[in-house]
Amino acid sequence: MKLKVLMLLIAVSLFGCKKDKPQEPVTSIDYANETLDVTTSTYPESITKVFDAHGGIDNWNAFGTLSFTMQKPNGNEVTTTDLKSRNELIDTPTYTMGADRNDMWVTEKDETPYKGNARFYKGLFMYFYAMPFIVGDDGIIYEDVEPLVFEEKSYPGILASYEAGVGASPDDQYIIYYDDATGQMQWLGYTVTFGKDSKSTDFRFIRYNDWQEINGLILPKSIDWYNYEDKQPTEKRNTIEFFDVKLLKDRPNPEMFKTPIGSKIIE
């Protein structure tokens, strides 16, 4: 009987010890107030190096409006682009051209007929100006290619091509040539396939060696077209300068891209 009582007392004692043992505190994290390191986009190392040298692709993606002016033979040409929708407005002394997700249109001024190809011209200079960031769009395939050698200096190359069905000219290709030491873009090789049914191997060349800082990003101040032979640039042909550049976080008013009464709809 005494043995049973002793065993009962031991059991009660052990139970009491377990019951009274304090629990370890649980740390609660308020993630609403935490800065999380999350990678939202993945690019190959080589093109990331170029993006970073120009201010970073994430910084570029934070902007909603790009506007710039070019001096053309008939006067100043002002291009305004919604960087999210790619709606565009081009205003010149002789015409205004606009495009939204529904229509493309041209308004002629002073009875001067518009003789250009609006669909080909839409986004053309915005693409050239927004290099290298424009090849950070979705649906692009990257491939390292042979370097470009110009005036005894070698520039590594990155071929950017589109997945099938992406954009108005999915067969277009771009090669970003960059300074290996700094990562900064120096040349663009590009093909023109608008209105064609296949890719082209006829690469044309633009030199990018005149840069300016706009809101933390390194963007062109001017670009030089070069003549070319045997897939190599030869001598400078002409220069386009960009001024009155505006890069804004807010997107433009969508009303500015809508078709005005009396404009010609581009089919």
Task: Record keyword descriptors for this entry.
single chain, 14 strands, disordered N terminus, alpha+beta, 267 residues, outer membrane lipoprotein receptor (LolB), chain A, globular
Overall mean pLDDT stands at: 86
Largest sheet: 7 strands, antiparallel
Q: Whole-number radius of gyration?
A: 29 Å
What is the 3D form? globular
CATH fold type: outer membrane lipoprotein receptor (LolB), chain A
Give the ordered list of helices and strands.
Answer: HHHEEEEEHHEEEEEEEEE
Count helical runs. Answer: 5
Tell me the distance between the termini: 105 Å
Helical amount: 10-25%
Q: Please, how many domains? A: 1
Q: Architecture in CATH? A: Clam
In total, the number of strands is 14
The chain-level structural class is: alpha+beta
Fold blueprint:
Elements: H1 2-20, H2 45-53, H3 57-61, E1 65-72, E2 75-82, E3 88-91, E4 95-99, E5 104-108, H4 118-121, H5 124-129, E6 140-150, E7 153-162, E8 173-178, E9 185-190, E10 204-214, E11 217-229, E12 232-241, E13 243-248, E14 264-265
Antiparallel strand pairs: 1-2, 1-13, 2-3, 3-4, 4-5, 5-14, 6-7, 7-8, 8-9, 9-10, 10-11, 11-12
